[in-house]
Amino acid sequence: MNQLEQLQKYTTLVADTGDIEAIKQYTPQDATTNPSLLLKAVSLPHYQNQLKQARVFADLEGGGSQAQLDNACDKLAILIGKEILNIVPGRVSTEVDARLSFDSSASVKRAQKLIAMYEQEGLKRSRILIKLASTWEGIQAAAELEKEGINCNLTLLFSFTQAQACADAGGFLISPFVGRIFDWYKKFDGVDAYPPEKDPGVLSVQRIYQYYKTHGFDTVVMGASFRNVDQIRQLAGCDRLTISPGLMQELADTESSLDKVLDARSASSVDDSQVLDEAGFRWGHNEDAMATEKLAEGIRLFAADQVKLEGVMKG
Question: In degrees rounded to 5, what are phi and psi of residue 170?
Fold first, then answer.
């Protein structure tokens, strides 16, 4: 077996793309989307019909200009998600507007709207993950949504403190960003690379995985944002990994053996379980310079792509 096939024995694979042809090629269990991926998707010929449908939907719904843009972008996300769900057997992740990352109530309302739109398309909420930034407000929104049976993917996760709070809140899944952690430390340390087993992004996810399994948290750990296949190999055995088509192909082209690195049965953590209040969360996250910078940057980048997507919707 090639390394992609071997990895699928240990870990649930998730496609980090909105490209239908790539999803068909690599047969993942799930797929993730975000504003950046949707922006890429609408440039593909395959999605031009969905783009038109979203514009028509927004016109029919009416309202002010921003309301119409919100409706058009949400409808596009739902239509692309529906298309993906026709191919993958599992779930698709759909993201709440990043500009709501510091508003729990607005995030909950937008998530409920997205789920209602999916259900109007005949899709069950059990096949959807609502993506929320792992701010304090996003995590509290997820806690509320989980009580309604709306499962959440807490994304833009960089600090151990964020991971603790997500588990406390009962979030369904977290997406720690391996590659972006790697990027920050590479610049900070002034190096070009790290030995695979000492990659800071890999070590961050390994620590979270060990903590979750040791203390019995049900929250799924899904490594994300990979820069190279060595990062993926070092997380073989993680609950899920969301991988771009290019890196999936690189694994598929490699025939050497792939060892399982993470195993819940042998997990061991030196970190004590503790429930964080808001002050504890904000202090713990603030103590991590990398995480503080990358979370803020990630929200800004997703918000900027959301604005670009709105520009496309205007035509």
Answer: 75, 30
**Dihedral of the alpha carbons of 81, 86, 89, 90, in degrees to the nearest 10:** 10
What pLDDT is recorded for position 77?
97
- Give the pLDDT score at 18: 87
CA–CA gap between residue 128 and residue 162 (Å, rounded):
22
pLDDT of residue 315: 80
CATH code for the domain of 21: 3.20.20.70
Domain that holds residue 54: 3-314
Known catalytic residue: 131?
yes
- With cut-offs at 50, 70 and 90, classify the pLDDT of residue 158: very high
d(CA 248, CA 145): 32
Choosing from 40, 82, 131, 308, which is the catalytic residue?
Answer: 131
What is the tally of structural domains in the chain?
A: 1
Residues 6+ apart with CB under 8 A from 110: 74, 96, 97, 100
Instruction: Give the β-pairing of 30-32 and 128-133.
Output: unpaired
Question: Which tokens go with 269?
Answer: 């953590």
